[in-house]
Amino acid sequence: MAGSTVAPTDGFVLDETKKPKWQMSPLTKRRWENFKVKKRGYWSLWIISTLMVLSLFAEFIANDKPLVMTYKEDVYFPVLFSYPETTFGGVFETEAVYRSEAVQQFIKDGDGWMLWPLIPFSFDTIDLNTAGAVPEAPSARHWLGTDDVARDVTARIIYGFRLSVIFGLSLTFFSAVIGITVGATQGYFGGLVDLIGQRIVEVWAGLPVLFLIIILTSLFEPNPVALLLLLLLFNWMALVAVVRAEFLRTRNFDYVNAAKALGENDMVIMWKYMLPNAMVATLTFLPFIVNGSITTLTSLDFLGFGLPAGYPSLGELLSQGKANIQAPWLGLSGFFTLAIMLTLLIFVGEGVRDAFDPRRSAT
Amino acid sequence: MSDRILEVEDLSVEFRGVEVVHNVSFHVGRGETVAIVGESGSGKSVTALSVMQLLPYLYASHPNGSILVDGEEMLGRDEEDLLKIRGNRIGMVFQEPMTSLNPLHHIEKQIGEVLYVHRGMGVSEARTRSLELLELVGLQHAEDRLRAYPHELSGGQRQRVMIAMALANEPDILIADEPTTALDVTIQAQILRLLDELKGRLNMALLLITHDLGVVRKMADRICVMTDGRMVEQGESEEIFTNPQHEYTQHLLAAEPSGDPVAANADSPVVMHADNVVVEFNLARGLFAKKNVLTAVDQVSLEIRQGQTLGIVGESGSGKTTLAMALVRLQSSKGNIYLGETQINGLKSNELRPLRSEMQIVFQDPYGSLPPRLSANEIVEAGLKIHHPEMTSVERRTMVSEVLVEVGLDPNLQDRYPHEFSGGQRQRIAIARAIILRPRIIVMDEPTSALDVSVQAQIVDLLRDLQHKYNLAYLFISHDLKVVRALAHHLIVMKDGVVVEQGPSEKVFSEPETAYTKALMAAAFDLEVVEAGSQ
């Protein structure tokens, strides 16, 4: 009677060669196809990625040190290594200032040559040989002009872009890690954990963030890392609600119960079974959090409570633009950099959101 | 019955250029019940909706065919004309009484709507008529219920309201799309009797869409069998049941779960027993609210022996699933529960973890019980990773392949994701996940309820094979008594959290003692209403 039914052991031949080594899951594949269909988001992703990669090599694009040089038959790489002036027959034990006429003369005397980067100024190089009064209007020497202490605006924008993007991404990354952890814990365990967690989040979110940051930054001189931590204190709540809701929804699903019945521990269930569901909502939010982070940094810099003087900051460029209305290239450069950067990020975010929308298909 | 009120001729339906219903013809006469039978995806609901012209015609079209209602063509009519026919000449009852009523309006307004639109009745007139209708469909205390909102009514009551709405204008044709599928068996019997009575009294044509052959046999004068968008056979009900011509009809009729449970040794050791299990839920909200306790499971004791199946039957809300969850320690409860000799209630989750491999669970909904982002292989091997960390990935893969073959799946498909499998295949994956750890007991929570009949029978066969092979103990929960009869050695009948009756299953099936069990059996096997049963 029992043997009269399906005898499944025959009929199947296991073909182990078919086992894929690595492959994109069909879902991911479909989403990528969907993303590619939206040309705006797709191109924005390429442009912003290219800009980011380029800006990572800012030292090789805009610098006040030569890329390569020779001196008495030897080859030197001043961008990568620091050489004291004495190497080139100078008197100072400190690093050579390659822009100075004295050092250039030493090198010429040593039968050397120098290959300069595309923009021969770094973000903090003060151009002492500037022709007119500062801020100086755009010219062949300074493509976007100089700011009010004769620093090259193009160089400052390249470095400022890099700092903003890295700052925005790391702030977002750490906010996401904390936010997802807190949201997942609250949603998964529910009950009292959720109740207490929610109240803490609510109280914390009610603090007047801007004033607190202004007070704290005036107490000590912030560097980028300190500022990152400070902003992180208030930025991690963005994702808590989304992830918590997703975990609350998923926690009673049968497959979560099935995993518990298998004896999986809570961490594995949260990570392997439930997080993939919450990732859709999270990824949708991320580009907007990146944008928010960049804007926060810029506005703090603009107000003068952000990074200390000397850092290449887009906010500081904007505030110079405001202080020097007679030099519109300052404000305009700052504005366009920010506008283009934020727009590209939003387009990418929009594309990601649409690609993850299950109701859309690639057709 | 030559008076054909509905005549469908050579009808096809296309969605975005893909034909899903092919050249279907059938007719229904006044006072006649015609059933369209088929499994999910057979095109039976699409056919029914095209009679009402309710398909999404942005994407859908009819390349050919005609639908005559009382001699008038429905295809190609403008929307305004159709509005006069829908709800007036043709009424429709849908499957899900929860979602087919508007939750924001009380039922007087919802029934009244039909009357205002088609009859131009005033408020007081409509009210009188609504009352009449609610009494007609047997809703008790109709007067008080007029102001009730859908959530205040039970499933059966909601379905009665739906029927009242459909009947409001005394339609010539009533289309009922799976009208009882979402209901408990005793309620199903009541609704079926109601539909039959009303059909006779109003001399309507009843077009019944269903997958349930029991309902068809009980109700239909004539039957149309559909599969893959084609009508493969139609004829008198008696004729089809006794002498099916088409291969698919024969297959469908043979698919009803049948046969006897695996032969079992009555003295085999007890795998699990429980004494006086109680599960309570505190419904009170907030920290300081007064306690408001719902007892979902009340003082249930049971024992399950090796190689045997304990069936738990009961209607929705009887606490059978809660009991199962408590037994596998996914739900906290009072009362002692033993797995073999080990007392497992009160164990901490890390003390319980090693014992988890001995008791596994299979859930009802094969779409919800598999994690959507893991492949079949990852799902099945998860248990091995926990309980046999010493196994290499190659060993695990070999074992997963073996188990998949055992449950009748092609192991070459193991790197696919759940959504690439059919419902039956998914349920096989869920069973593979449970048996790969070689448990002593598997709790099955309605494992066949979400599946088509023919797939149901295959799963029942598979479960019997596995039980025989591994001497497994099953705790089998179902509201479907036919499936339970094919598997269970012992039976527990539950109602409102309490055990109403228990004993060896053939005894409970042949000589039920309590009135409730009798009513349940009558409703399940004969679709008859026994007055002593619940209302």
Describe the oligomeric state of these chains in a short phrase: heterodimer
Q: What overall geometry of chain A do the principal axes of the alpha carbons give?
A: elongated
Beta-strand proportion of chain B: 15-25%
Largest sheet of chain B, if any? 6 strands, mixed
Shape estimate of chain B: globular
The percent range for helix content of chain B is 25-40%
Strand order across the largest sheet of chain A: 2-1-3
Helicity level of chain A, as a percent range?
55-70%
Count of alpha/pi helices of chain B:
19
Structure class of chain A: mainly alpha
Q: Any low-confidence stretches of chain A, pLDDT <50, length ≥5?
A: 1-10
Low-confidence stretches of chain B: none
Tally of helical segments of chain A:
13
The greatest inter-chain interface is formed by: A-B, 32 and 55 residues
Chain-averaged pLDDT of chain A: 84
Radius of gyration of chain B: 25 Å
User: Strand count, sense and closure of the main sheet of chain A?
Assistant: 3 strands, antiparallel
* Fraction of residues in β-strands of chain A: under 5%
Any overview of this molecule?
The complex is a heterodimer of chains A (363) and B (535). With 363 residues, chain A is an all-alpha fold. Helix content of chain A is 59%, strand content 2%. Chain A is built from 13 helices and three strands. Chain A has helices at 26-37, 39-56, 58-61, 101-109, 153-189, 191-205, 209-219, 224-235, 240-250, 254-262, 266-303, 314-323, 328-356; strands at 68-71, 74-76, 114-115. The two termini of chain A are 51 Å apart. Chain B has helices at 44-52, 79-85, 107-119, 123-136, 142-145, 155-167, 185-202, 213-219, 237-242, 247-254, 320-327, 349-352, 376-387, 393-406, 423-435, 453-470, 481-487, 505-510, 515-526, and strands spanning 4-15, 18-29, 33-37, 60-61, 66-69, 72-73, 90-93, 173-177, 205-210, 222-227, 230-236, 270-282, 293-305, 309-313, 334-339, 342-343, 359-362, 441-445, 473-478, 490-495, 498-504. In chain B, the strands form four sheets. Chain B has a six-stranded mixed β-sheet, sandwiched between helices. The longest helix of chain B has 18 residues, at 185-202. Chain B is globular, with a radius of gyration of 25 Å. The mean pLDDT of chain B is 86. The chains are: A mainly alpha (363), B alpha/beta (535). The interface between A and B is large, with 32 and 55 residues.
